């Protein structure tokens, strides 16, 4: 029986999702084994983990060889355990005897650099890496409104909106589902704050885009793309994420809500709806092949698309380890497909010669 490995940074991560996968594995002739990278013994490639027992519907602690098919659901932070696991995962991804469903994407700036010379460049907000206060002040003076994002950020964490008024500077962020706003009376105070912020992590700077609806709530379109049991890309579904009034994020982690995409689209003027539909089709047709020509193979992509008040369409974020909350909330009929797709693609990989796949994509491994 094929062992389908699921790798996370802790045994409680994404329990609901992983349990649903495990419940469906046996019918497909597979068993699920979940483990943590830091528990691998590098000498004999054995690892302590948990095997799903379908009879008792529970996870049983056991030791086994590292599975040859691995679904990577590791979300890295700045903590010591993340730093310990990263090189272990990179080592696993470099091995020819282990195949990953997807090999991940690099940080947001490397991603931007790779896409800005492609057919998708016009959909990318102008992006620059910033490490010094002077470059932030220069762009703020020039554009009046800017956004700062962590290069390695996820779920909207650590994003700041800066607006330069005649005498003051307004800074806004969202933490624990609350909007936190601060007014700096002068540039000197702002410089003090920025100096501390840029010491903590690496940031990207982008122009502020007017991506809110009539109720002044930020919103975007979340789309999930995945490969099927034949290794072909396809769209699983899409939904609309809406943030809080006056906020800057539509992420569910920041307290956002979701609505059905089709219902949203029919509420628009027909010409605008058709334009958005055509633009999305073009982006989604280009994106997977463009990414895989630049980076290692992928299994799934979460794409966040913004629609600005002037009608322009923007690729806001691309995630190689997307969540499923938006689709499960707006398209519950997709539940079975969402929980079986990873297993079916894993089975496809196990039955295909992976040598060509690994050699063809012999590029820098990233996360």
UniProtKB/TrEMBL annotation:
Keywords: ATP-binding, Nucleotide-binding. It comes from Neobacillus bataviensis. Gene3D superfamilies: ATP-grasp fold, A domain, ATP-grasp fold, B domain. PROSITE patterns: ATP_GRASP. The keyword ATP-binding applies. It comes from the Bacteria. It holds the Pfam family ATPgrasp_YheCD. Residues 114-350 form the ATP-grasp domain. GO terms for molecular function: ATP binding; metal ion binding. This is YheC/D-like protein.
């Amino acid at each position: 029986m094929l062992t389908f490995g699921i790798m996370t940074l802790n045994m409680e991560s994404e329990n609901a999702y992983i349990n649903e996968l495990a419940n469906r594995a046996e019918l497909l002739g597979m068993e699920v084994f979940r483990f943590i990278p830091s528990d691998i013994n590098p000498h004999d490639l054995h690892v302590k983990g948990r095997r799903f027992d379908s009879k008792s519907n529970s996870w049983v602690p056991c030791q086994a060889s590292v599975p040859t098919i691995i679904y990577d659901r590791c979300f890295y932070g700045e903590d010591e355990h993340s730093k310990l696991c990263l090189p272990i995962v990179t080592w696993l991804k470099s091995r020819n005897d282990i195949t990953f469903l997807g090999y991940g994407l690099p940080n947001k700036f490397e991603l931007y650099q790779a896409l800005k010379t492609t057919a998708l460049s016009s959909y990318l907000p102008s992006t620059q890496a910033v490490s010094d206060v002077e470059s932030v002040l220069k762009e703020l003076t020039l554009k009046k409104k800017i956004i700062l994002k962590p290069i390695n950020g996820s779920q909207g964490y650590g994003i700041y909106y800066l607006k330069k008024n005649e005498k003051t500077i307004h800074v806004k962020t969202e933490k624990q589902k609350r909007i936190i706003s601060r007014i700096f009376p002068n540039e000197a105070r702002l410089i003090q704050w920025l100096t501390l912020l840029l010491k903590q992590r690496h940031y990207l700077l982008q122009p502020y885009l007017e991506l809110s609806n009539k109720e002044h709530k930020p919103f975007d379109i979340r789309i999930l793309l995945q490969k099927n049991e034949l290794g072909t890309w396809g769209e699983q579904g899409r939904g609309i994420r809406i943030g809080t009034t006056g906020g800057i994020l539509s992420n569910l982690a920041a307290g956002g809500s979701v609505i059905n995409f089709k219902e949203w689209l029919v509420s628009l003027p027909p010409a605008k709806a058709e334009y958005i539909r055509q633009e999305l089709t073009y982006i989604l047709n280009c994106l997977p092949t463009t990414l895989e020509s630049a980076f290692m193979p992928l299994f799934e992509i979460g794409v966040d698309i913004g629609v600005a008040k002037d009608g322009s369409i923007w690729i806001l974020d691309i995630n190689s380890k997307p969540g499923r909350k938006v689709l499960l909330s707006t398209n519950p009929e997709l539940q079975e497909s969402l929980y079986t797709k990873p297993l079916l693609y894993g089975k496809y990989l196990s039955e295909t010669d992976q040598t060509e796949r690994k050699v063809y994509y012999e590029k820098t491994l990233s996360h």
